Amino acid sequence: MTQTQSTKTATPTAIYSLTIAPACVLRGRSAIAQAGEAIARFGKRPLIVGGSNSLAVAQPYLQPILKQQQLQSAETAYGKDCSERSLETLREAVQTHQADFIIGVGGGKALDAAKLVAHQCKIPIVTIPTSAATCAAWTALSNIYSEQGAFQYDVTLARCPDLLILDYGLIQTAPQRTLVAGIGDAIAKWYEASVSSGHSEQTLIISAVQQARILRDILFQKSAAALKEPGSETWQEVTDAAVLLAGVIGGIGGAQCRTVAAHAVHNGLTHLLASHGTLHGEKVAYGILVQLRLEEMLQNNQLAATARQQLLKFYAEIGLPQTLDNLGLGDITITELQRAADIACNPNSDIHRLPFKVVPQQLMAAMVSTTAPVGELKIKN
Ligand SMILES: [Zn+2]
């Protein structure tokens, strides 16, 4: 082979950037009270970004250490949603306060807004989740919504947060329902990762899929006991599973291991006003059942049918929604259902990571039959 030929046949190595984990995770009861020095390392003038509720809840935890470290902090509520307009207001607040780092406090949307404004202003970010409803405190990803709460797109961030503080005392003040939702969002990792990447030969992806299986098993085994005894050891383990391990899987697996049909269904549902009373993880949990139903109907997949029955039992035990009716969407019109299905099937949707083609009519059929007995309502390809 001549020199020229070998140059021609060589394929360039693709550069693949990994954002696996926060640089540091501090975790424990009263973790915030002991995090003063770790926080003060990032600067002198933090801007605290959160929901108005979470800012109030977190204040007694944060104020003593801000004072102790002599930090000049300012607070800003992120507004109605993690939207482009909220981000604009937050960037202005960073400028006005001359903030040198951000402390994000709250649930998924508050943390997404805080992470994104830090990314845009190129300053460090500390995340303090106030509930276990999502793994947003961990990930290098922010979801953008419209002012009306409809999902628009996600943004990949340059890195995971510089510091994550998981304070069990603070998380325990959140309504129980948020942990239930967090369990729904976390358990989706297995169903989405295994269907999109279960046959991958890539070392890190194989590892992410296996960890998603472990995460599912931990949740099956410990969720009911955790919810009966908030604050207990088991409750802390389940909180770790929802906030931390779910984040690890997204980090190691990258975009391929993140979302498939369960999240696509969630995204479609956010475009219906009536869906706004339910939490992200609740819609995702329902979305898993829809995804399994699609695998049953379009592939005649018996394993999916069994998995769906297992999940229905689990959902009944811990209070996750099984149907549109459980999500408060029992009265939507066919037009609205079609709209959600159309959005979930748009050409850029993650639903197309399924190993078969899905059209809105098939998705609608799956969406209304999540509790169907096994073996019924099969549609041939
Ligand atoms: Zn999610």
Automatic annotation (TrEMBL):
The keyword Cell cycle is annotated on this UniProt entry: no
Organism: Microcoleus asticus IPMA8
Organism lineage: Bacteria, Bacillati, Cyanobacteriota, Cyanophyceae, Oscillatoriophycideae
PROSITE patterns assigned: ADH_IRON_1
A Pfam family matched in the record: Fe-ADH
InterPro entries referenced in this protein's UniProt entry, alphabetically: ADH_Fe/GldA (IPR001670), ADH_Fe_CS (IPR018211), Glycerol_DH (IPR016205)
Family: Belongs to the iron-containing alcohol dehydrogenase family.
Molecular function as annotated in GO: glycerol dehydrogenase (NAD+) activity
Domain Alcohol dehydrogenase iron-type/glycerol dehydrogenase GldA: 23-167
Protein name: Glycerol dehydrogenase
Superkingdom to which the source organism belongs: Bacteria
Enzyme class: oxidoreductase
Keywords: Metal-binding, Oxidoreductase
EC number: 1.1.1.6
